[in-house]
Amino acid sequence: MVLLLALMLENSVIAAADLERERRMAEEISDVILDGEVEMLRAGDHEFLSIYTEAESATRALLIIHGRGFHPDWADTVQPLRVELVEYGWNTLSIQMPVLGKEAKYYDYLPIFDEAIPRIEAGLEFLRAQGNTNIVIVAHSCGVHMSMHYLKQQGDDQLSAYVGIGMGATDYRQPMLEAFPLKAISVPVLDIYGAEDYPAVRRMAPARWQHIQAAGNSLSAQKVVDDADHYFTDQGDLLVEAVGEWLGSLNIE
User: Would you say residue 10 has pLDDT above 50?
Assistant: First the structure.
């Protein structure tokens, strides 16, 4: 614990979410969203942006959690997932996660992981209020770290499955300090990453799969998307197809 705190203090430049940057991003994207409806959710005394996109007659939903420093309508990864998975019969809610300055790295974000928990809870509550009875978290990059932090604290009772995209991404000389609770997740897990993903994501894939298998859910899977980088640049359709097909294999109504 002492080592953890020392590393965080040494490397951290900011210790609280940058609400002004978040506000600017929300203003920039709110008026240009073409698919879905803006929903302002509340975590404590803070109001944050989310985008709800409905499928026809669906009672199942995906809670989509973006990567580090981005927003709920980010063109790579997030927007394809939140818009195109509707065609697979899923309502989607993409939520704004806490952000820091553009220079912030993995160790800077560690102290604000707790701020992600009430946002995830608010997203789950909103989805249930819309009549969604089965909810799956779909998280990318730092969104995986934040949602795994939530699962470590709160468990997976509120979920029907979990999708982690580009799991384990950090920064140069900043190894993971908070392990993913993969062995304790009882719902089906999809670990999906690009063939050209960051070295750490690819290097840790066998260990992640071993931990996922140890949890004992036979519906879990690990998939690699050919020719895709960490952000699935120009490969959003392949990502959506892989995630959509796996979700279909779960037979969640």
Answer: no
Domain that holds residue 181: 2-249
Helices (H), the chain: 2-11, 19-30, 78-84, 106-109, 113-129, 142-154, 199-203, 205-214, 236-249
Higher pLDDT, 5 or 44: 44
Per the structure, the count of domains in the chain is 1
For position 112, which CATH number holds? 3.40.50.1820
Indicate the pTM of the whole model. 0.92
Chain segment 76-112, per-residue pLDDT in tens: 999 999 999 999 999 999 999 999 998 899 999 999 9
- Contact (CB, 8 A) for 75 and 83: no
End-to-end CA distance of the chain: 43
Sheet holding 134-140, edge to edge: 37-43, 46-53, 91-95, 60-65, 134-140, 161-165, 189-196, 221-229
Residues listed for the chain = 253
> How far, in Å, CA of 34 to CA of 147, rounded?
27
Average pLDDT in the 171-190 region?
Answer: 95
Strands 189-196 and 134-140: unpaired
Between the alpha carbon of residue 139 and those of residues 14, 20, 62, 64, 190, the distances in Å are: 23, 24, 10, 6, 10
CA distance 65 to 245: 19
Tokens of 32: 């240009």
- Of residues 109, 103, 97, the one with CA closest to residue 67: 97
